[in-house]
Amino acid sequence: MTKNDRANFGSKIGVILASAGSAVGLGNIWRFPFETGNHGGAAFILIYLGCVIALGIPIMIAEFLIGRRSRANTAGAYRLLSPGTQWKWVGRLGVLSGFLIYSFYSVVAGWTLEYIVQAVSGGLSGQSTEGFISTFNTFVSNPWRPALWTIAFVLLTHIIIVRGVERGIERSSKILMPLLFILLLVLACCSISLPNAGEGVRFLLQPDFSKVDSKVLLGAMGQAFFSLSLGMGCLCTYASYFRSDTKLPRTACNVAVIDTLVAILAGFIIFPAAFSVGIRPDSGPSLLFITLPNVFQQAFGALPLLAMLLSLLFYVLLALAALTSTISLHEVGTAYLHEEFNFSRKKAATLVTTCCVVLGILCSLSLGVGSHLTLFGMTLFDLFDFVTAKIMMPAGGLFIALFAGWYLDKQIIWEEISNHGTLKVHIYRVLLIGLKYVAPIGITLVFLDQLHVFG
Ligand code: TRP
């Protein structure tokens, strides 16, 4: 097994595109709005932005440099950079969270496929707001339909991982991602111009810090990790395929900016429309799927064909954005099994797919027939989301920051971020302070706050 053997995924795909493709997905368009809605709006967004800058960017640079330096899967990376130590558990923990995230993520990705079919068949037109809500609820609680879509989505990801049609993805995402961005802009304008949309805009822009509690802090931090694909070795795995002349700090900043812009735009689509038609902002995971059909209907109701085409385009682009994220999640487990256990890539990918199909089906069922089976008061779907975004990924981020800030030789950090001294890097000191102090202390404080240590 040579380095190039495993590079067949990443080496052909544009660096920023691959990383941004991993970062931009359902986390931005589906999860960000509902977490913002659950946590009261503008104040949550400001704290989220703070987390992206203070924790997200430094940790992303750390993941990049660990991955590119070691040129290995995430568990192998720690083994190679710190032989004989226990740091390898950070990588292993990451692989485990990857499985859990992939499982519930593909359920929602499956929902986007259902909505593509609904958009084409006209099932979403001419309904009232209550109609959209009940369509969604009936669909997710159906025992087999969402589960089948989940399987379909995981298999789609599997085929791409095994066949390696990355070139096609690269070429098409160069067109599709900007197209998604433009469509989001158009939809945001439509949403803002709906009657009574002002309240939704205020919800996004007028912070009320009196409502900020430990849940809001944890939610914002978790969302930053989730949205940037951080804390579980995803970007570390991708960085192992980066070229040696890739500029790590700049790539990290670009990815963070693109990812944040998409999330904010999604907020400007969802909330003005939700307030306009009377959907509660704290409707949870259903928020995107019950609000958007309203936007298409209200804004383009007089032109049914246009409404149909735009909603079709939206759900197709959303599914593709989710696909570039599931590919990155799949790749973490596949690279790990392939390199650490010497499975062929195909066998490794099949194992990941099988596990995630089983877990994904369980997550999907937990929203319908299995909804009475709860653990800590949560369904399996909610539990996987909570445990990964709010515990495992921030904990992973904490260890990554400690590893890069305190354990790794500073020479390695310098060489990687300056490409062996060929780049001028102004942020070296700031980065080190971020990794040594700001990120570890910040994450620890948010965790302690959860335990009500501060009253
Ligand atoms: N960041 C992606 C999104 O926003 C989801 C994702 C892909 C992810 N890879 C990840 C989340 C790794 C956490 C860890 O949709």
SSE string:
HHHHHHHHHHHHHHHHHHH
Largest sheet: none
CATH architecture: Orthogonal Bundle
Distance between the termini: 54 Å
Count the DSSP helices. 19
Question: What is the gyration radius calculated from CA atoms?
Answer: 21 Å
CATH class: Mainly Alpha
Q: Please tell me the overall pLDDT.
A: 91
Low-confidence segments, given as residue ranges, are 1-13
What is the SS-derived class?
Answer: mainly alpha
Strand content: under 5%
Instruction: Return the CATH topology.
Output: Hydantoin permease
Described by the principal axes of the CA atoms, the overall outline is globular
Overall number of structural domains: 1
Ligand set? tryptophan
What's the number of extended β-strand segments? 0
Helix share, percent? over 70%
Brief summary:
With 455 residues, the chain is mainly α. The protein has helices at residues 3-6, 15-23, 26-38, 42-70, 74-81, 88-121, 129-141, 145-163, 166-192, 198-205, 214-227, 234-239, 248-277, 287-300, 304-340, 345-365, 380-407, 410-417, 428-450. The chain has a single domain (3-450), classed as Orthogonal Bundle (Hydantoin permease).
